[in-house]
Amino acid sequence: MKANPGGQIDLNEIIGRDRVIEQLWETLEQQSIRINAERRIGKTTVIKKLCASPKAGWVPIFQDLEQYHSAMDFAQAVYREVDAYLSARKQSARRAKDFWKAIGGTEIKGVLKLPTFNDQTPWKTLLSKSIEDLVVSQHQQKERPLLLWDEVPLMLQSIAAREGQAAAMEVLDTLRALRQELGGQGLRMILTGSIGFHHVIDSLKQHGYANSPLNDLYAFELPVLEPNFARELAEKLIEGENIATSDAAMSAQTVAERADGFPFYIHHIVKAVKLSGQEATAEVIDKLVSKQMLDSNDPWELTHYRDRISTYYGAGSEAAVLALLDSIAVRDDTTAVNTILHELKGQGLTVDREELLKLLKAVEQDHYLAKDEQGYQFRFPLLKRWWRLSRGL
Length: 393
Known about the structure:
By secondary structure, the protein is an alpha/beta fold. The chain has helices at 18-28, 43-52, 71-88, 94-102, 123-140, 152-163, 165-182, 197-205, 227-240, 248-258, 263-276, 282-294, 304-313, 315-329, 337-346, 353-365, 381-391, and strands at residues 33-36, 58-64, 106-108, 111-113, 144-150, 188-191, 218-221, 369-372, 375-378. InterPro entries: P-loop_NTPase.
């Protein structure tokens, strides 16, 4: 097995996700899912594996939605995917095609010529009828459709920016209505994204959105690799790259620990050791990790954790978020809320206790922090280490 940081991982080389995938299938028996996880943990890899090796009786369809920027873009993409799937099985997306023809579309020798669209074109009808076609056809075959949609929040943000907040609200409400109406016939969805759904919902609520469009979805927390699987991945990569080591188990253990169980960082560390031409000792691994964390080219893309703060929390809260993260990063132990509040006020930041609690909750949801009965600490030691280095703490 070769190190492939950031590249497409061979689905046959996925390590340590069998139990997670089994848990997803078990959950899907009852309800649809939204996957919560930090970036680079492997959300997309997991759902692609789910799609490639479905349980008997399930029909998964995967789509990356980041490229769609309007509600009609989304509806057409779903229609095309459903129609292609049904056509391959010699079935027809009858409801959707009837709708196309009703609004001016034509079909010549089996090829559908789409009409010209405008702002009044009912995308919601196209989306609904396409999914209804899929559900009905699979129900007749005693199969259950599973829509695997990646980067949903990014699509919703694009729709809100281009067509307004109301359009994004309508997409969310339509999807929830479809899950409610067709769930009894087997329809399930898995929604994932590299930014938190809560940011999209909070933004919509600031514009008067009162619904809870995701409360029917099970919030599945995708964890990092368990320590034994992180070591296994590191061992296989070290062996596959023919890296010199006098103690392969120790080298793999060090890599796994420094990477916090993130497959992406395990691949990066092993690649760095390979390129260095050095033996994989604990000292070498530590030095290379520090070097990559300080590299101005940011090979690990860690500056994303700093850059996204203004986008996620707004200019008004940016200084407070930075200050609270700094306060927690400099301590080895858990930091109490009152301690954080005292330090923020000492810096002249006008944040009261209630505002701080809201910020801490949001930062926790974004996987910077973990909470226990005594207070807060960084969820991932790797992120804490980088935060200290990058902030000069």
